[in-house]
Amino acid sequence: MDASTSRDDDLVAAQALVQAELARSPPPASSSADPRIPPALDIQTLPTLSAQFDRLSTQEAQRDASADDRPRLDTTRFSLPAPAAGLDASEEEWKQAVDNAYVQLSHQEGRAINIDLMKKYGANHWRIHNYVLESSLSRYSAARSHITDSVSASTNRTRMLLQQDAEGKLSTLEAQWSQLVSTQLQMAVASLAAEHEVETLKQERQRLRQRIETLETA
């Protein structure tokens, strides 16, 4: 009981502090009085949206008009209209109605014959057609394989000839390079020998000069 009473006292004290703080704080200003908040936007008054709505309405009207102007399927030739005057119609009108009935009957008979022929021979026709397509595919595949083999053989033969020609040229160039290197080495050796001989002759000349000077002095 003591703990419960203590919690209730703490809650009452906290509520009293909150009420006192709210009493000291100034009341919040309304959102309409705040100059930082922009006014409500009416999208109906925007010129861009109005123009867009007008354009969509015009397009919808044009689509409806074009749908009404489109040619429709003529079904009158599939109907069997009787003369408009009925039994009081003239003989010519009844003759036209009978002729139309004969035409429609002939058309339906033709369609029935076509359907019977399709049922009887359609499957075989498609089998023959598929056989022709398979034969054509086999011929085209064989021709493609032959052309591919011919091109591959020609390419390989051309590559082999080019490689052989390049091999001969490389061998010739390698021999020329070896000969030039050998000539350069021989020239280098001869140059070293000549330099050594020149140096020897210089020393011999110097020795002879010294001897001549010695003899002249004596």
Automatic annotation (TrEMBL):
<feature type="region of interest" description="Disordered">
    <location>
        <begin position="21"/>
        <end position="44"/>
    </location>
</feature>
<keyword id="KW-0175">Coiled coil</keyword>
<keyword id="KW-0507">mRNA processing</keyword>
<comment type="similarity">
    <text>Belongs to the SPF27 family.</text>
</comment>
<dbReference type="GO" id="GO:0071011">
    <property type="term" value="C:precatalytic spliceosome"/>
</dbReference>
<feature type="compositionally biased region" description="Basic and acidic residues">
    <location>
        <begin position="61"/>
        <end position="75"/>
    </location>
</feature>
<dbReference type="GO" id="GO:0000974">
    <property type="term" value="C:Prp19 complex"/>
</dbReference>
<dbReference type="Pfam" id="PF05700">
    <property type="entry name" value="BCAS2"/>
</dbReference>
<dbReference type="GO" id="GO:0006397">
    <property type="term" value="P:mRNA processing"/>
</dbReference>
<feature type="coiled-coil region">
    <location>
        <begin position="191"/>
        <end position="218"/>
    </location>
</feature>
<dbReference type="GO" id="GO:0008380">
    <property type="term" value="P:RNA splicing"/>
</dbReference>
<dbReference type="GO" id="GO:0071013">
    <property type="term" value="C:catalytic step 2 spliceosome"/>
</dbReference>
<feature type="compositionally biased region" description="Low complexity">
    <location>
        <begin position="21"/>
        <end position="35"/>
    </location>
</feature>
<keyword id="KW-0747">Spliceosome</keyword>
<feature type="region of interest" description="Disordered">
    <location>
        <begin position="57"/>
        <end position="78"/>
    </location>
</feature>
<keyword id="KW-0508">mRNA splicing</keyword>
<dbReference type="InterPro" id="IPR008409">
    <property type="entry name" value="SPF27"/>
</dbReference>
<protein>
    <recommendedName>
        <fullName>Pre-mRNA-splicing factor SPF27</fullName>
    </recommendedName>
</protein>
<keyword id="KW-0539">Nucleus</keyword>
